[in-house]
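Q: what does this look like with 6-O-phosphono-beta-D-fructofuranose bound?
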Amino acid sequence: MRRVGFLTSGGDCQALNAAMRGVVKCLANSGEEFEFYGFLNGYMGLIAGNFRILAAKEFSGILTRGGTILGSSRMPFKQIREPDEEGRDKVESMKQTYHKLQLDCLVVLGGNGSQKTANLLRKEGLNIVSLPKTIDNDLWGTEMTFGFQSAVDIATNVIDCIHTTADSHGRVFIIEIMGHKAGWLALNAGMAGGADIILLPEIPYDIKKVVAKIEERAKKGSRFTIIAVAEGALSKEEADMKKKDLEAKRKKEGYTSASYEVAQEIEKKTGMEVRVTVPGHMQRGGAPDAYDRVFASRLGAEAGQLILKEKYGYMVAYQNREIVKMPLDEIAGKLKTIPKDASIIKEAKMLGVSFGD
Ligand code: F6P
C-alpha cells in the first residue's frame, strides 16, 4: 500500500479538481493499492496535520467542478521559515506530518510561490510531484498552466458584454484583467475580445500614445474604445520607480491600480466618458472550460505515472504539445513573463492593437 498526499495551494483556479481526479484515476487504474490523504487549505493543512483520508471514489464526479475540494490558502514563500502563530517551525512541522503519516509522496498543485515551497520540501528529503496551476500562466518551464484558458474565456466574455454597451453609449471602457506581474491573461483576452488598446506589465505605456489611439479611432468614426488593462500595468514613469515609491504614489493619488489612473487621464485629455469594469475573482471562478478539463486530466495522468515509477522532484509541464517533466529545482522561483519580442505582440500590432508604447 502506498500513501499519497495532496494539497492545493495559493489562489485557486478552475480545473484543480480535474487535475487531482486525473492523478487518482491513473493510480487507481494501475492495479496497485493506494491510500489518499487530502491536506486542507494548502500548506497550512500540512503544517497543522489537518487532513482527510479520501477514498478514490471521492475524486469522481469532480471533473467539472470549479474551486478545490481541499480548500486553499496563500502561504508566502518568504514567510515559510518564520514560525507560525503557534510558534511552530513550518518546514519542520510539514516534514513531521509527512513522516508521521508515512507518506510515499506529496502531490502539490500550485503556482509560483507554491512550487518554490515544493522545491524546498524536496530539498528537505520529501518525495514531491507537482502540477502547474494558475490563471496567470506565468510559471517557468511550461507553456501552459491549467486555469488559464478558462480565465481567458471569462475575461473575453466580459469584454464581449462591454463592447455592446460601450458602442451604445459611445464611451471608452477599461476592463481590468488579473495578472500583477505577467500580462498573458490580459493579452489573450484582449485579443480574443477585440480590444483596441492592451496595457501590460511587460510593456510600460505612455499615456499620450493611449490618448492618440483613442483620438485616431474617434477621427475614423468609432464611437467607443475598449482597453484591456492588466492589474499590474505600469506607465513608463512608474516602471522606473521602486516598488515602495510606486505604492506611495498610488496611495497619494488614490488609485488602487493603473486602470483608474488611465481612466482619469483619458477623461481629462479627451473629454470622453470613461468607465472601468473589474471582473476580479470571477476570472478564477466557475467550472473549467473544455480545454482545461482535458489539459488538467492529461497532466494528472502523467503525474500519476511519475508516482507509479517513483520519479520524484518534478513538475509536470507542457512543451511543444507534449506533457513533459521538469525538475523542480530548474523551474522553482522563475517567472514566465511575455518576452519583449514575442510574435503575438507583433501580430497584435499588425492588427492595429496599441500597447501604448
Ligand atoms: O492566483 C493568481 C491571481 O488570481 C492573480 O491574477 C491576482 O493578482 C491574485 O491572484 C489575486 O489574489 P487574491 O485572491 O489573494 O486576491
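The chain has 13 helices and eleven strands. Residues 10-11, 74, 111, 134-136, 178-180, 231, 284 surround 6-O-phosphono-beta-D-fructofuranose (CB under 6 Å).
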